[in-house]
Design goal:
By secondary structure, this protein is α/β, with parallel strands linked by helices. The chain has eight helices and seven strands; from the N terminus they run E-H-E-H-E-H-E-H-E-H-E-H-H-H-E.
Length: 261
Amino acid sequence: MTLKTKSAVVTGSTSGIGLAIAQALARAGANVMLNGFGDPADIEKFRAALAAESGSTIRFHGADVGRAAEVAALISAAETAFGGVDILVNNAGFQFVAPVDEFPADRWDAIQDVILNSAFHAIRAALPGMKRRNWGRIINLVSAHGLVASPFKSAYVAAKHGQIGLTKTVALEVAQCGITCNAICPGYVRTALVEGQIAAQAAAHGLPPEAVLRDVMLAAQPTRRLVEVEEVAALALFLCGDLARSITGAALPIDGGWTAR
């Protein structure tokens, strides 16, 4: 597959799943606007390395996607840099865990802003250009928690369920415009964040990391193994191709059977 004539924005792409997707798109020939937090020197290092490796134009924009005006500025910057945004991957997010009656209101609001509201604002800003070109791919990185719930994750689960509703609505609205909109719903993925959670739980419970992974974190994931970021990136890349043009409005699990129960 080649995406040499396409340009992409991937939010939350300075690490983890977002970075893997940005790399896959760039290696397929797309120009990519990276976005996220991190040490500026580190970001510049992997931006330059990805540009050199792929031959694509790779830019970075430090928008805080929890702020609507900055999301609009991110899309505008990509349109200026590349001449348009053909592929939009809404990946940014974060987690906070607490019982509903103890959940801090500011954390609730921040999670909705970064996960659900940012997806809306980015789609709203990118769609006019996609409609003019009669081509677009919108991918919302959701989670198995967009399909099922877990206790103590009310804000995250609500935001992720909302993203799936947004995905379906957008897909219906643009079905005849050459644009698809889909949600990818991973289970636990091997990222630096998850590796840190494994280590923390192992220390807290006095268990070996492999026991924490198998019996605690992956208890709901029948394969009992973490999803690799490359697996998620490969699915995202496929959804950007012409052979996926009839896949739209879908919530696609990549969760080791979690939501098959």
